[in-house]
## 1
Amino acid sequence: MVKIRIDRERCKGCEFCVIVCPKKIITMDKQLNSAGYYPAIKIKDKEKDCIACGKCYQMCPEVAIEIWKE
Amino acid sequence: MKKVFSYPESLKKTKFSYCPGCGHGISQRLVAEVIDEFKIREKTIGIAPVGCAVFAYNYWNFDVTEAAHGRPPAVATAIKRVLPDRIVFTYQGDGDLASIGAAEILHAANRGENITVIFVNNAIYGMTGGQMAPTTLLGQKTWTTPWGRKAELSGYPMKISEALGQLDGVHYIERVAVNNPENVLKAKKAIKKAFKNQIANKGFSLVEVLSMCPVGWAVTSVEALQWIEEKLIPVYPLGVIKDKSKST
Amino acid sequence: MEKKILIRGNEAIGEGAIQSGCRAYFGYPITPQNELTAYMAKRMFEVKGVFIQAESEIAAINMVFGASLTGVRTMTSSSSPGISLKQEGISYMAACQLPGVIVNIQRGGPGLGNIAGSQGDYFQATRGGGHGDYRTIVLAPYSAQEMFDLTCLSFQLADKYRNPVMLLSDGIVGQMIEPMRQNWDTNDKNIEWKVRGEDWILNGCKGREPRMVRSLLMEEGELEKLNWELNRKYKKMEEQEVRVDLWNIEDAEIIIVAYGIAARIGKTVIQRARRQGLKVGMIRPITLWPFPIQVIKDIAQKVKSFLVIEMSLGQMVEDVRLAIEGKRRVHFCGRPGGSVLEVDEILDKLREISNLK
């Protein structure tokens, strides 16, 4: 079991996490955050596919992603 | 559940002021992680440059000073000489290190100062709006090279890491990039080594980080990752440039 | 009898620094201050301090910046063209409120000038010198003894105010060899001995919150706030730190105002002038900034006129005129370019002044 948390207020919408995720579980939100960016969000029901590889964490320039693992 | 990838202690919770897709956040996080892993946060003094990374003192959760443009190696030299048991590093951009501070980095390296240098090369001056840097590529359009950099007018992309590698005082130099997860991990390994060298009193270590500046390059964030691969790396090849511990 | 040693002015500065606890010195070769750098190379080794011959004056002052923020007493020295290069770092130190001593053994200018002693850097020294709204305390020694004493005072004042202090001398006082008392009189009541501030230095954040040293203040009103804070400090310096040497003032009708080497010449002039019946006295500012405005104002009430002598085209003379506010005539006699003022030419000027209505 893996849990991933994306801080939507830190995110600036660069999309790096979206393109590096091998399981394609992240997408861009259609709602702006308070800074005016479309932040990255988890795709509904896809989190269970996460393998905690950490690629999104490594590439996130805002250090907006954290990952937990059972 | 156990946190496997988490926010490092050596970073404050302050949001970065960098543009979307900028590589500084990644490099500064890597430095913070390495400092956490060596448990040296309470004895580290960082030196922020002039340029986009000047605000590093707002982000790192340890003692940080700003230095005048290009002078971090001189400031670091004095701090390390006065406090040899502390960990002292500079974090400098290409304008700061390779242009206005070329003399300071050259002589700190030549003296073999036992400091760590993180040199972020994004081939442009970001903070001032995207002017030509010494590391700007031939043909690259910037605010001050509107038709692209021409060698006959502005010389060539400066391979300062290779130049520094010629100096006897230098212990270790490696060039890395932060444009994909695998490269980020290699960058972290290099940064870790550069700090480990200082802890072991081995002398001058420098890691050049090829880093994204999507706004300065006028590309999207995702295109910037590709830009590093296709444009920067062919001119600035990745890998170890000098490592005294391997040559002896 | 108190023991004295023979010492060169430049070396007296070095000894003063060592005895004041300076343990980090950064220099770069330039004549006529080289004896000081060489002295520090030797003495820093003996006291286990840090000595670096930097790659440039710019690097040297930035090393002073770095050493200062760790809490160590630190100094750099140079001569006129090199001091121009140091202005960057001095401005940053003033902004970051870092103490440090900068020695200028002036030579002729502008440009590369020559290597003879001169006084052409008064404007640069007393107006801050670098960019932005700031001040440095400027002390002007005129003998080997004062090279020593005022160096000690410089470190005290730098610490007291957390501000750069400049010791402004010249190639002649720097090169002169004179007797000197070796121990600084620490009973100067004007000085608070102060332990280096443990609350602002960077030495690793063990057991405390991390600190930052910076001069980029981009938030609305943030920089103005610092400027006003600095200004309060400068006002305090103006109130507390003016130092001046008065000589033959009591019955004087004409007052010579001179500092440093010009004051040495001035004293000979006064002795000879008095033998010729001219009542001449001297105000010798020891602090060029803060300038002894009130002292000059008060004395102006009692005398006929002033003669400012400088080894320049006239720089301090402007401050004397500002102090006197047009109430007395202020004459000037000076020589630029490292040429030495002759006693006779000053005497001629004095006679000319005394004949004026």
## 2
Amino acid sequence: MSYTEAEIWLIMVLMGIGTFLIRFSFLGLIGDHKMPDWVLRHLRYTAVAILPGLVAPLVVWPDATGGTPDPARLAAAGVTLAVGYWSKGVVRAMLAGAATLYGLQFLLG
Amino acid sequence: MPGETKKSTYLRGLTDALPFVVVVVPFALLFGVVATEAGLPMSQVMGFSFLVVAGASQFAALQFMSENAPILVVLASALAVNLRMAMYSAAITPHLGALSLPRRLIVSYFLVDQSYAMSVAEYEKKPAMPLHLKLAYFAGVSTPICPLWFASTYLGARLGDAIPAEYGLDFAMPIAFLAMVAPALRTPAHIAAAAVSIIASLALTWVPLNLGLLLAGLLAMMTGAEIERRMS
């Protein structure tokens, strides 16, 4: 790394300000104003639209295996989704996923 | 909520967020370790976690910095990773938009993946929740997450490379996020949106600056909204 100390602080502060403004964007500008129905309809799907896409590449091509699909990680992801979907319990889903991962890693070596 | 006070709602948020300790701690530890190994002094490692509070983008910035990328490239890539938070901001606005400006500023600082996802799931389960209880729940959820983010970064920077990389800890985040999403798959519209999100994000990994995820997210939101419109 060949940045000066000041440059690193500059990166950090600008990243902090930028990230904060992204978070504040709608909350700050729209605040209490009513949003149109079609916008609200789209926003209801934000979590299920972003989080699965965020983790999908990490599940299919994990860094830990150098990007090769790994049966233990794929199974753990599947079990987490299935248990969370049917039991509606976040903690139960996480525990089931972790148990699957460690169990299969142990069995498959 | 009849019978619910600010305090009990806050405590419920706090307990609901406790399982996410297993995500936040290893992720922040790892950032502390990696940033220290990349040559950042403690003050700067902590500066990142305090000023940015967004793990994935902090890793992205480190990655580009270790390649000595131009400052603008570092900033653009790291901020692109965080653009998803604009959608979180929009999605939480119908619930918390009526707060005073100082409170909205504070909520914005603490608006991370977990606090957003847990709070909105709670608000949708209880649409009649009054504003002050919604805020109390958000504060409760944020309480274990953000301070632990700072503390674990510090610990990671202290420990350096004493933590073995191979404990499958890389997979804590995917498992936690999937566990958050799965109970939210309440309708065919939600399931279709999640499926489109996964397929599109895998198909669009070639798009630079992580923008493939945003495109996938937009496509998935349009899918969910369109199915809801046709079914209602």
